[in-house]
Model the fold of this input.
Amino acid sequence: MINRFGIILLCLFLLGACGETKPTGKIKKVGLLVPETVNDQVWGTKGFKGLLKIQSKFDVDVFYKEGMNSEAVVERAVEEFDQKGVNLIFGHGSEYAEYFNNLSKDYPDIHFISFNGDAKNKNTTSLNFKAHAMGFFGGMVAAHMSKTQNVGVIAAHEWQPEIEGFYQGAMAENKNTKVSIEYVGNWDDEIKAVQLANDMMEKGIDVIYPAGDGFNVPVIETVKEHGMYVIGYVSDQSDLGESTVLTSTIQQVDILYEKVADLYNKGELKTGNLSYDFQDNVISLGKFSPHVNKEFIQEINNQIEDYKKTGNLPK
Done:
């Protein structure tokens, strides 16, 4: 039995069969590839919301495929999208940059978009979040709210710029803060991430930054059980507990999808690697916990506005 939500998704996936649309710009049809699912309520869901924004704004057919986690399945999906007339494809992750570099020469009429990678061909673009400042302001909040002066980061990979940003922000707020950093090794190992969180709390760490969209929700739930704090990641995660989530470092992926589609539709989308930050209104801090005092919130909001204008972080 298919519920109403399933019918809606099926209709979106087969929009060409649900009604004819009339694109008015360069966009014809748009495809989305996600490595896991669009129902993870974090990264994948944001990509899907971005796809829906494009469908709504530009009145074009959209398609998506889940489980696109190898070059072989991506090749088949791109071929299928090409047959449907798709000319703009989003690969929702860093792994797609390499796949698209290899594939794009065979599909000159398709523009390929990936995230946080290195786009090398004339019909490829990589969208890179400048996450250092995002982590910096999250680190400031963590250090300000830590009662033990011990905060921790649980990251997926060492290359994530928000990790160093978090460390520097914590030091800027309180030079006596100790920052512990642990790595899961991938985005999705919930068991290891939760174990690292438990180990940190046993050592007196009372604010944790779970910087991995595949494991941050279970980490937040674990920290909540112990009455400690977290800094949310990628999405505004205050709905998981305002007394636990001090704020969130947000990447407005769905808004960026719409921005990029608009540039492509106008024929103004650049190839290569493009970077986005607070100044582009696609990175922000989320809702603050009522546990964070209003004077500090005003102070950090002022510092973010100054960063937008000058590019200089607090010292």
